[in-house]
UniProtKB/TrEMBL annotation:
SUPFAM superfamilies: Winged helix' DNA-binding domain. It comes from the Bacteria. Gene3D superfamilies: Winged helix-like DNA-binding domain superfamily/Winged helix DNA-binding domain. This is Transcription regulator PadR N-terminal domain-containing protein. Residues 8-81 form the Transcription regulator PadR N-terminal domain. InterPro entries: Metal_resp_DNA-bind_regulator (IPR052509), Tscrpt_reg_PadR_N (IPR005149), WH-like_DNA-bd_sf (IPR036388), WH_DNA-bd_sf (IPR036390). It comes from Actinoallomurus oryzae.
Length: 108
């Protein structure tokens, strides 16, 4: 799963969000490392919807601005949980390798 897709699904885990709120939540979750532009976001949302991982929740107009909210589907929540488990296992392997013995003569 692409990192951007994972972060979008993670942003949507607690509640439905609209485009700009997804952008800001992804930026917060990634400590500012991942910044989605509108084109990238909506392309990813379309792809995730086509894959059945998210769906449109509702639409509204707030102060003259149109908002379309998205939410996780059951399949999206399962995919997010599976990817989180995969990343957790990968991080654990990385920690073990980093803590492993150093080969003599290798740079510190």
């Amino acid at each position: 799963m692409r990192e951007q897709s994972y972060l979008i699904l993670l942003a949507l885990a607690p509640e439905p969000l609209y485009g700009y709120s997804i952008i800001t939540t992804v930026e917060e979750l990634s400590d500012g490392r991942v910044r989605l532009g509108p084109g990238t976001l909506y392309g990813a949302l379309d792809r995730l919807a086509d894959e059945g991982l998210i769906t449109r929740d509702r639409e509204e107009v707030v102060r003259g601005r149109f908002r379309r909210y998205y939410c996780l589907t059951g399949a999206g929540r399962e995919a997010l949980a599976a990817e989180t488990q995969r990343l957790t296992a990968l991080a654990a392997r990385a920690r073990r390798r980093l803590a492993g013995p150093r080969i003599s003569g290798s740079p510190a």
